[in-house]
């Protein structure tokens, strides 16, 4: 496997340690993340010649942030697929590098939803979108949209709240080892079921945290990566899509991961059974379950049985996931968790995860995200990463 | 549920003026494409199936079944978000009224009703039907 060619490698990864930053601007958090990723890579600011960001970047996105960071770039791009954007941007940076448009690409994310009082129970329909007149009056939020997804999956496949709770239990087992995690207490299935129902069938502990913070990644040409005296993490597969509400042909039990995952696996030439570690977007427990099915880790409808009994716990189950504690326990900066999914996959491939959760000999990892709302329209991105 | 959530107005514009006029008369309208023959939701002037501009409004029966639902219980007053699959085919986002969170089942028959939003503009919701 290690002989597989890659057009680009992830050479820098940084997760901001803050989870609450009322006295910092969003641009400042972006800059602190950029500095952290450069230090992690052992590169300097002048090495960056490509910059990538998404809808969390203030002002005119790349124009404002390239100015704030005082970068000189040959290539830039902003893509908004919600929380998964940064997983897609790794693939886009890889493609830009392969095309010779840049050599060292910086991707940043930051936001302060915790300080700004963001809540998953607040309506999220954006004014001015074409769907707003048809959806805004009904009070669609994040949590009641995903509640509908969960209720439909339960109806079609017999999935239970106990099974969903196992996803949170596994995340909490990992978060106990992360000193930066917002929720470090190990919880049980009973704890999840006893927490208040927010929007049925989802309980408070089925929901991710709301945190300030951010992260950054640096993607570079393989020759540059090999000169940095660090484990080399190759991007060997990438896929993305947007799954629409299909003009009224609604199907809430399939996500875009069915498309983005198939593309990434085909490009990488590996199968789900080959993956040793998976970062899977966990805005809610049900989010994880649907993506695992659509990626092919189990059959459609089998997700409940697959995640139960600790199967996602590192050292216990068959598929260690979100060993940083994920969005459910650790961090969901800017309400956009995609970048943390890539960061923990890089830690695992470098052997730099916490020893209690490090997957032994981790050489092949996956990072999967969705963004937007699984109940309406959402982006999906899949990355497959390999240690050289 | 004693209190009922008052919905914010959808506002009005070229995409929904005729729909709202129908709603004021108690009629649920769907957008239909005369070129490809398909009906879609949410309504658009340009058909999302074939990109034809040859679309028009057609009345719907107002009958459907619950595709999925979720009741927001940590807000006051609680309310039920749902997808309803209309007898004509499309599934639309809406609210369910006249039953508590324990009263809803996927597959239940429902019937449209129009309720005023905060500026009086009516929007369709669904109540238990037969």
Q: What does it look like?
A:
- The complex is a heterodimer of chains A (388) and B (130).
- With 388 residues, chain A is of the alpha/beta class.
- Helices cover 34% and strands 18% of the residues of chain A.
- Chain A has helices at residues 26-41, 62-69, 85-98, 132-135, 142-157, 161-175, 189-194, 222-226, 257-268, 285-295, 303-307, 326-330, 338-350, and strands spanning 9-15, 50-53, 75-78, 104-111, 197-199, 202-203, 213-220, 233-243, 277-280, 364-372, 378-387.
- In chain A, the strands form two sheets. Chain A has a nine-stranded mixed sheet with strand order 3-2-4-7-1-8-11-10-9, with helices on both faces. In chain A, strands 5-6 form a two-stranded antiparallel ribbon.
- In chain A, helix 2 (62-69) links the parallel strand 2 (50-53) and strand 3 (75-78).
- With 130 residues, chain B is mainly β.
- Chain B has one helix at 17-24; strands spanning 29-33, 39-40, 55-59, 63-72, 79-86, 91-96, 109-116, 122-128.
- In chain B, strand 7 (109-116) and strand 8 (122-128) form a beta hairpin.
């Amino acid at each position: 496997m290690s002989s597989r060619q890659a057009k680009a490698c992830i050479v820098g990864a940084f997760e901001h340690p803050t989870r609450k930053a009322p006295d910092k601007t969003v641009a400042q958090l972006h800059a602190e993340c950029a500095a952290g990723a450069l230090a992690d890579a052992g590169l300097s600011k002048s090495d960056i010649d490509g910059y990538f960001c998404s809808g969390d970047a203030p002002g005119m996105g790349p124009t404002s942030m390239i100015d704030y960071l005082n970068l000189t770039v040959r290539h830039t791009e902003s893509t908004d697929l919600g929380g998964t954007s940064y997983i897609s941007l790794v693939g886009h940076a890889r493609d830009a590098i392969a095309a010779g448009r840049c050599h060292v690409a910086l991707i940043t994310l930051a936001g302060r939803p915790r300080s700004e009082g963001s809540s998953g129970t607040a309506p999220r329909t954006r004014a001015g979108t074409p769907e707003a007149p048809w959806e805004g009056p009904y009070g669609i939020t994040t949590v009641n949209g995903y509640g509908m997804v969960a209720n439909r999956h339960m109806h079609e496949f017999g999935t239970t709240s106990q099974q969903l709770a196992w996803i949170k239990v596994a995340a909490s087992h990992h978060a106990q080892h992360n000193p930066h995690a917002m929720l470090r207490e190990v919880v049980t299935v009973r704890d999840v079921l006893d927490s208040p129902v927010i929007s049925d069938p989802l309980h408070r502990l089925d929901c991710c945290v709301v945190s300030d913070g951010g992260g950054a990644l640096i993607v570079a040409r393989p020759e540059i990566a090999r000169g940095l005296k660090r484990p080399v993490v190759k991007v060997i597969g990438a896929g993305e899509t947007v799954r629409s509400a299909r003009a009224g042909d609604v199907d809430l039990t399939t996500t875009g991961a069915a498309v983005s995952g198939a593309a990434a696996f085909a490009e990488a030439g590996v199968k789900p059974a080959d993956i040793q570690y998976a970062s899977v977007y966990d805005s809610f427990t049900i989010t994880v379950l649907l993506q695992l099915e659509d990626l092919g880790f189990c059959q459609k409808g089998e997700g409940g049985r697959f995640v139960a009994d600790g199967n996602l716990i590192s050292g216990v189950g068959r598929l260690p996931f979100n060993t940083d504690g994920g969005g459910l326990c650790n961090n969901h900066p800017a309400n956009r968790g995609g970048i943390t999914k890539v960061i923990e996959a890089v830690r695992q491939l470098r052997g730099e995860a916490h020893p209690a959760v490090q997957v032994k000999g981790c050489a092949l990892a996956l990072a999967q995200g969705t963004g937007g709302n699984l109940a309406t329209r959402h982006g999906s991105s899949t990355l497959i990463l390999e240690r050289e | 549920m004693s209190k009922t959530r008052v919905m914010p107005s959808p506002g009005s514009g070229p995409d929904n003026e005729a729909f709202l006029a129908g709603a004021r008369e108690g009629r649920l309208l769907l957008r239909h494409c005369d070129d490809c023959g398909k009906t879609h939701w949410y309504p658009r002037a340009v058909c999302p199936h074939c990109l034809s501009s040859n679309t028009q409004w057609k009345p719907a029966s107002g009958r459907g079944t619950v595709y999925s639902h979720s009741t927001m219980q940590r807000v006051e007053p609680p309310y039920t978000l749902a997808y309803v699959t209309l007898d004509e085919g499309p599934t639309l986002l809406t609210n369910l009224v006249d039953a508590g969170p324990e009263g809803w089942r996927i597959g239940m028959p429902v019937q449209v009703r129009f309720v005023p939003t905060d500026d009086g503009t009516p929007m369709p919701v669904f109540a238990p039907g037969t």
